[in-house]
Amino acid sequence: MQGSGHAKPAVSGKNNNGRPMKKIRIKIGELNIDAVLNATKTAEAIYKALPFSAKANTWGDETYFTIPVKHGPENPKPVVAIGDLAYWMPGAAFCLFYGETPSSCKGEVRPASPVNVIGKFELQYVESLKKTKNGTAVTVEKLN
After folding, report:
1. Does the model's pTM come out above 0.85?
2. Which of 25, 55, 116, 127 could form a disulfide with 87 if both were Cys (CB 3.0 to 4.6 A apart)?
């Protein structure tokens, strides 16, 4: 992995409800990515469970890992955007999307099945994320 710098969150300040956004740091190998969680119940459950560590899995331009949170559907999306953080219900997994997956049609970012979008990460680390290998150590922690 390249670099160990920090990305600024893609979204900062307050969410649509006027509440402060919850900031997190995702460490994947030597890469540190600061991100923000949205105001969904899924994101809140994940934030409350932090910190946690896992081993990364990759699937196309997606990195995902199992987390100690079980949550049901919350406006699940079949297609997401580059920079989205999501929760994949069938695998109780935290996902980072940074490009096409094996399920994508050209130009789209499609998870294996619909996911709950839980936040955003800064796009400057997309190319570094593409170098993530299966089994890389991952830690997610609170920043505020």
Report:
1. yes
2. 116
